[in-house]
TrEMBL record:
Binds 1 Mg(2+) ion per subunit. Mg(2+) binds at D40, D74. Keywords: Hydrolase, Magnesium, Metal-binding, Nucleotide metabolism, Nucleotide-binding. One of its GO terms (molecular function) is dITP diphosphatase activity. One of its GO terms (cellular component) is cytosol. Gene3D superfamilies: 3.90.950.10. Transmembrane segments: none annotated. Its EC number is 3.6.1.66. It comes from Eubacterium cellulosolvens (strain ATCC 43171 / JCM 9499 / 6). Belongs to the HAM1 NTPase family. The keyword Metal-binding applies. SUPFAM superfamilies: ITPase-like (SSF52972). This is dITP/XTP pyrophosphatase.
Length: 202
C-alpha cells in the first residue's frame, strides 16, 4: 500500500516519516510523487483545511498512483492570550516569508506582562485521509503548553522554540525528535489515523 502525504513543508514530512515508520506502507511526499498542489486553505477549521489539501491532491493523482491513500496535515498554534491566534493562520500570520525568529519574538512581545498561568497555548493538528474509493476521514491531535519568555532549543521547527511544556521545564525545541513525537499534536493525530487505516486497509 502506498500513502502520499500532501505537504510542501519538509519539517512536517520528516516528522511524518518518523512517526509512521512502523506502518507497513510506502510513504511518498508530493515531490516524490511528482505532484504539485497548493489549494486555497480557506476553511475555518484545521479539519476543513486538512480535507481541502488531501482532496486537492487526490483529484490530481496520476494513473499509476490512483490506488494510493492521500494524507494531509493542517496544524497551528493557538495562543489563548491572543484570542487563539495565529490558529489556522499559523503559516501565513505576519506573512508567509517572515522568519520564525520574528514571528516568535512578536508573540513573546504580545504576551509581555501576561503571568505564567495565563500564557496557555496549544498546538493542534488535523490529519485528513482520502481513500482510493473516495471515502475520507479526519482526526485531531492536541498538545497543551505555555508560551515561554524567550526562544529555547534548536530542534523542531516553526513555533517550537517558544512552546513550553505545561511545567515550563523545556520547550518542544529542546526535546529530542523521539520525545517530541511521543507527545506532540502530530504524533497523536498520526497514530490515530494509522489505527484507522489499519482497519480500512486490512
Ligand atoms: P503545508 O500546508 O504544505 O502542509 P504549511 O507549513 O503551510 O505546509 P500549515 O498551513 O498546516 O502548513 O501551517 C502550520 C504552521 O504551524 C507551520 O508552518 C508551523 O509554523 C506551525 N506548526 C505546525 N506544527 C508545528 C510544530 O510541530 N512545531 C512548530 N510549529 C508548528
Amino acid at each position: 500500500k502506498r500513502v502520499i502525504f500532501a505537504t510542501g513543508n519538509e519539517n512536517k514530512m520528516r516528522e511524518v516519516r518518523e512517526i509512521l515508520a512502523e506502518l507497513p506502507v510506502e510513504i511518498l511526499s508530493m515531490k516524490e510523487a511528482g505532484i504539485s498542489s497548493d489549494p486555497d486553505e480557506n476553511g475555518e477549521t484545521f479539519e476543513e483545511n486538512a480535507l481541502i489539501k488531501a482532496k486537492a491532491v487526490a483529484a490530481v493523482l496520476p494513473e499509476q498512483l490512483k490506488d494510493s491513500v492521500v494524507l494531509a496535515d493542517d496544524s497551528g498554534l493557538e495562543v489563548d492570550a491572543m484570542d487563539k491566534m495565529p490558529g489556522v493562520q499559523s503559516a501565513r500570520w505576519m506573512g508567509h516569508d517572515t522568519s520564525y525568529r520574528i514571528k516568535n519574538a512578536k508573540i513573546i512581545e504580545n504576551l509581555e506582562g501576561v503571568p505564567v498561568e495565563k500564557r496557555t497555548a496549544r498546538f493542534v493538528d488535523a490529519i485528513a485521509a482520502v481513500l482510493p474509493d473516495g471515502r475520507d476521514l479526519v482526526v485531531r491531535g492536541v498538545i497543551e503548553g505555555k508560551i515561554g519568555y524567550e526562544e529555547k532549543g534548536e530542534n523542531g521547527f516553526g513555533y517550537d522554540p517558544i512552546f513550553m511544556l505545561p511545567d515550563m521545564s523545556r520547550s518542544t525545541a529542546e526535546l529530542s525528535p523521539e520525545e517530541k513525537n511521543e507527545i506532540s499534536h502530530r504524533g497523536k493525530a498520526l497514530r490515530q489515523i494509522a489505527e484507522k487505516l489499519r482497519e480500512v486497509l486490512a
